[in-house]
Amino acid sequence: MSMTNEQGKSVEGILTPDKTAWKPAESLGYGHTYTVSADGLTVTGRTGPTTATFSTLTPPNQTKAYFTTTAGNSLTDGGTFGVGTVIVAHFDEDIPDQAAAEKRLVVTTNPPVEGSWYWLDDRNAHWRPQQYFAPGTKVSVAANIFGAELGEGLFGQEDSKTSFTIGPSHVSIADDNTKQVQVFENGNLIRTMPTSMGMGGSESVAGKTISFWTQPGIYTVMDKANPVIMDSSTFGLPVNSRLGYKETINWATKISTDGIYLHELASSVWAQGNTNTSHGCLNLSPANAQWFFNFAVPGDVVEVRNTGGAPLDVWQNGDWGLPWDQWLEGSALS
């Protein structure tokens, strides 16, 4: 028994134990033509060879899954990420049957940890354990979706996978009671940085309420840039309004989807450690901001405590703030 594709390349396969059927060892591709040749053996002798040709269909609607951080950056194969890393399976199409897709999303860790998927919307499923990863954990994730129907005629375009390692435990605690950021590595306090956080209150602009609190919650490092252009008009506050701004800011480490950073602001050093003056970001001295920028990796944890305003929401990069029972309810298989 043999099978070849249109280029004449052989397709590996195996006989069933009773030797009555043969099947390919891997999935066949979309839109290909295959030729099968088989010999038989009967009580009267050999039969064949018999040949047959067939073609596989190409689904008109396909989707691929990409594994990213909550910032949308690739979870680099072989990379190192923080203990608060949240795995994002981003599909390039809306998924009608999220349960079918989730069954084909596989996360394995060494050492093993319990975790679950949470569907943030129709294209993005997030996975995290109940507790932060242990440093040194090896993580592999796969989307085995090729050939699978994911609802309403949508099929998986191809499989995806990546593997990465969890680095040292970096947990920073920003406490508004002390207006200090304490940075811990593997449980040891290694730096204390005075900060000035959100001034509090809100302003209504064109019918939209803009908050100036640093929301309490558990954030993770998303991305960083040096410099970054900070423009208040991006969240609805005109640059020429009373509290508007557009500035070039150095050593900026992003921790929320709506633009909260730990960053340098030399002009607020006088306030750092005693007075909140920012629009929501955590201001640091130039030396501390540069140190933290170089120290942090995506997935590191930043816990903000004792501030006012609404708690950080899941869509803002607040995955870790959701109680575990509610997180489990976000699974399509719950």
The number of distinct helices, counting runs of at least 4 residues, comes to 3
**Helix amount:** under 10%
Assess the beta-strand content as a share of residues: 35-45%
Structural class: mainly beta
Instruction: Give the tally of β-strands.
Output: 28
Residue runs with pLDDT of under 50 for 5 or more positions: none
The best one-word shape is elongated
Q: Main beta sheet: strand number and arrangement?
A: 5 strands, mixed
Give, in spatial order, the strands making up the sheet with the most strands. Answer: 18-17-16-28-21
Q: State the separation between the terminal residues, measured CA to CA.
A: 44 Å
**Arithmetic mean pLDDT:** 92
How large, in whole angstroms, is the Cα Rg?
A: 26 Å
What would you say this structure looks like, in words?
- By secondary structure, the chain is mostly beta strands.
- It has helices at 98-103, 286-295, 324-329, and strands spanning 2-5, 13-15, 22-24, 33-42, 45-55, 61-63, 65-68, 79-81, 87-91, 105-110, 115-119, 124-129, 138-143, 154-156, 160-166, 170-175, 180-185, 188-194, 202-205, 208-211, 217-220, 223-225, 228-231, 246-249, 252-254, 261-264, 282-284, 301-305.
- A five-stranded mixed sheet has the order 18-17-16-28-21, with no helix packed on it. It has a four-stranded antiparallel sheet with strand order 7-9-12-11.
- The longest helix is centred in the last third of the chain and has 10 residues, at 286-295.
- It is elongated, with a radius of gyration of 26 Å.
- The two termini are 44 Å apart.
- The relative contact order is 0.15.
- The model has no long low-confidence stretch (mean pLDDT 92).
